Amino acid sequence: MKKINRKGFTLIELLAVIIILAILMTLAITAMSGYIRGARKDTFVTTAQQYANAARFSFVNGEYSADVMPARGQCLVVSTNTIALESGSHESSFGQAYTDNSYIIIFNNTTTGQDKYEYYIQMEDKAHNGFGVLEENTLDGDLVVEKDVASERNFQDNLAKGGTINLFKGTSSTTYEQSASNTCTISGVITG
Asked: Quick one: which of 78, 139, 140, 79 has its CA closest to 107?
C-alpha cells in the first residue's frame, strides 16, 4: 500500500480551533466591557471634581456676587452650565450632554470663627447617568448610577433660592448616607 503524505489540518480540526477562539474572544469582550464601564464611571467622577475645582476657584476669587454668598448653614448652588472647564467639554464620559440638574453646592458649614466651606456635587447627563448630591471628597465611580439617577434618594431637582437641600456623603464605594450636617438652606442659585 502506498502511504498518503498528509499535510495541513482537516476541516474538523479547523472548526474546533475556530470554536475555541470564538469562546475566548467572548470571554475577553465581556471582561473588557466591564473595565470600560468602570473607566467611564471614574471619568464621570473626575469631570465632576473638575467642575467643583472650577467653582471653588471662582468662589475664592470673588466672582460670585455678595448677595448670594452663603451665611452659616446656607449653601450656594452653581449650575455646571455656568462653569467653563480648562479642558474637556460639557459632555459626560457616556457621550451625553449634562442636564440642568447638574450642580456644585457650596455649603457654609461654619460653627464658630472663620467661614468653612464644603463642596457637594450632583451630576446628571441626558441619558440619566450620574449621581445625586454627594460630598465632593467622598465621590467614587461605583456611586455613578447608569440610566436612572433620578430614582436615587439623594437626587434633587428644582433647586431654588430659599429651598432646602439634603446633603449626603459616600460611605463606601457603593453606598451613601445623609451627612452630619443633614441639610442647608439655599442662599442663591447661579444658572446659565
From this structure: 78
From CA 120, how far away is CA 164, in angstroms rounded? 14
Phi-psi region of 40 (alpha: psi -120 to 50; beta: other; left: phi over 0): alpha
* Residue among 125, 166, 170, 165 at smallest CA distance from 148: 125
Three-class SS of residue 17? helix
Q: What is the pTM of this model?
A: 0.82
SS3 letters across 46-99: HHHHHHHHHHHHHHHCCCCCHHHCCCCCEEEEEEHHHCCCCCCCCECCCCCEEC
For residues 72 and 133, what is the distance between their CA atoms, to the nearest angstrom?
19
d(CA 148, CA 81): 21
Please name the residues in contact with 5: beta carbons below 8 A apart, sequence gap of 6 or more: none
| Among the listed residues 109, 104, 117, the one whose alpha carbon sits nearest the alpha carbon of residue 184 | 109
Mean pLDDT in residue range 90-107: 92
Q: How far is CA 188 from the centre of its chain?
A: 23
**What pLDDT score does 3 carry?**
66
